[in-house]
Write a structure and sequence with these properties.
single chain, 308 residues, alpha+beta, 7-stranded antiparallel β-sheet
């Protein structure tokens, strides 16, 4: 419950951060309520997704993400592959990043630069950007809580998230047969610090892997969003915080939509272990890289096979 995220009482903020820390060090996954994103904003973004994915494939392919220099635009069914042993992932997607009414103002990383938008889809850009802005505000609200959870000053991350390295993705999962389909789909972990996920209340599909290697249903809870930690934060904390493997399998017989926002740091941030995250019992595990280098390498690997 994020009601106390901005409380004037530091004890209440620390209590909330302690709850978050417990989730981060054990499973790297939790639900949040009272998150501040209005239901109307969510509904309009979902409606936009439904309209966009209903367009003819020829229209959507004009925005093909493989033609984009910055990984923005449309990904067709099986057009993305997180498991190179598979044929592709069973969803369509549409990716956008930060921009103002005047357009983007940053050009410093793998996904920086101009978004692409469909023609003749009134309200689509405005509704998707409204959701993006609201989800980014939520992401910025979480960083002070993550800092407290790591026994760092509350403003520790403030100068590291000045240029939102955040991507919103509209996702459409067509109904799948009840029997698994060989060679499609994949397990994944977010590339960035964390994912803020809206999922349909009536269409369960998300599963997360527990510490025993078993898949657990992440059943939708009305009025909540899912927070899933990513590899960037796991690297930064030297695996003190866990990055959770997850997957989405839609066997409900219905179409499913979801909207994740992937929130990362500024691209120039160096991902070296945070204070207090290295010890004789937990020595540094990862090569030091910038956030931008890391994200770009992961994106190139994800889309490389589908370009062939």
């Amino acid at each position: 419950d994020l009601s106390n995220a901005t409380s004037k009482d530091p004890a209440l903020r620390r209590s909330l951060a302690a709850d978050i820390r417990n989730a981060c060090v054990t499973v790297g996954f939790f639900y949040v309520k009272n998150h501040g994103i209005p239901e109307e904003v969510i509904n309009k973004a979902v409606g936009g997704a439904e309209r966009f994915f209903s367009l003819p494939i020829e229209t959507k392919m004009k925005l093909d993400i493989h033609a984009s220099p910055n990984f923005k635009g449309y990904t067709a069914l099986l057009g993305e592959n997180v498991n190179l042993n598979n044929k592709g992932d069973l969803h369509e997607a549409f990716d956008i990043g930060w921009e103002t009414e005047e357009g983007p103002i940053r050009s410093d990383g793998a996904m920086a630069g101009r978004n692409v938008w469909p023609d003749n889809l009134p309200g689509f850009r405005e509704h998707v950007l409204a959701y993006y802005d609201a989800a980014v505000r939520l992401g910025l609200l979480l960083f002070p809580l993550f800092a407290l959870a790591l026994d760092l000053p509350e403003d520790f991350f403030a100068d590291k998230v000045t240029k939102q390295a955040a991507i919103v993705r509209l996702l459409h999962y067509p109904p799948l047969p009840l029997q698994p389909m060989e060679g499609v789909g994949g397990n994944r972990r977010p590339h960035r610090c964390f994912t803020i996920l809206w999922q349909q209340d009536d269409t369960p599909a998300l599963q997360v892997m527990n510490t025993d290697g078993k898949w657990i249903d992440a059943t939708p809870i009305p009025g909540t969003l899912v927070l899933n930690l990513g590899d960037q934060l796991a690297r930064w904390t030297n695996d003190v915080f866990k990055s959770t493997v997850h997957r989405a399998i839609n066997r409900t017989g219905k179409r499913r939509y979801s909207i994740p926002l992937f929130f990362g740091t500024d691209y120039n941030v160096v991902l070296e272990p945070l204070p207090g995250c290295v010890s004789p019992d937990n020595p540094a595990k990862y090569e030091v890289v910038t956030a931008g280098e890391y994200v770009k390498s992961r994106l190139e690997a994800t889309y490389a096979q589908s370009r062939m």
